[in-house]
TrEMBL record:
Primary role: Catalyzes the hydrolysis of the gamma-glutamyl amide bond of hercynyl-gamma-L-glutamyl-L-cysteine sulfoxide to produce hercynylcysteine sulfoxide, a step in the biosynthesis pathway of ergothioneine.
PANTHER family: GAMMA-GLUTAMYL-HERCYNYLCYSTEINE SULFOXIDE HYDROLASE, GLUTAMINE AMIDOTRANSFERASE DUG3-RELATED
The name this protein goes by in its record: Gamma-glutamyl-hercynylcysteine sulfoxide hydrolase
Pathway membership, UniProt: Amino-acid biosynthesis; ergothioneine biosynthesis
Catalytic activity: gamma-L-glutamyl-hercynylcysteine S-oxide + H2O = S-(hercyn-2-yl)-L-cysteine S-oxide + L-glutamate
Keywords of the record: Glutamine amidotransferase, Hydrolase
One BP annotation, GO: ergothioneine biosynthetic process
Amino acid sequence: MCRHLAFLGPEERLGRLLVDPAHSLFRQSWAPRRQQHGTVNADGFGVGWYAEGDPVPARYRRTGPIWGDRSFADLARVVRSGALLAAVRDATVASADGEAAAAPFAAGPWLFSHNGAVAGWPGSLAPLARTLPAEDLLSMEARCDSALVWALVLNRLRGGDEEGQALADTVLDVAAAAPGSRLNLLLTNGEVIAATAWGDTLWYLTEPGRRTVVASEPYDDDPHWQEVPDRTLLAASRTDVLLTPLKDVEEHLASVPPKEPST
């Protein structure tokens, strides 16, 4: 159910990160090595990247497979960036949303991707959807599970949560509402990366003080890649990576005070 990657570091050509490596995201669109659900990621793709001095990222997204887009190959050959987020998609449920359902989703300085699926979609998340402002629901780019998860994350970010906290709390809420969901989330603002491992693979590669890559799976055989344990929050910058276990859903639910009965 999708593969994704985020990068922070010195400026690189998009192609050097997404196309050139032996097991790049480009290749993972048809031959992933560690994907646990689904086999081909041909239902769209996207890349978002930051230009120096501009906090709002650019995006390039398409409905079809990444290998069939000649314009992307040209773009990846010449565009350079020191921060990006990219994804290739295997749709959970066929829909008419097309390009709008392809990650990365974006708002302000943020780029977001979801690798996984929400169990019982859409009914399971109806209670959480009702917690969002109506304007947020009406302005969702797509009607897929990932778009609603993004709306939940974005609502927390706009409320002042830091990136890692917004992801962690959203994962716990969604997992409680829809047990069995796979919720590997990836978020960046061009300066930090936050990610969750919840039901699928997640890895990172870092050169402290220089560059950090966070990805669904390694894009090469560098022995320095490290796997993130399941049920873990990752918070990274160009200088370090911090892993924090996500508390059990049961503990999370126990900490939530009961709702007052309606009158």
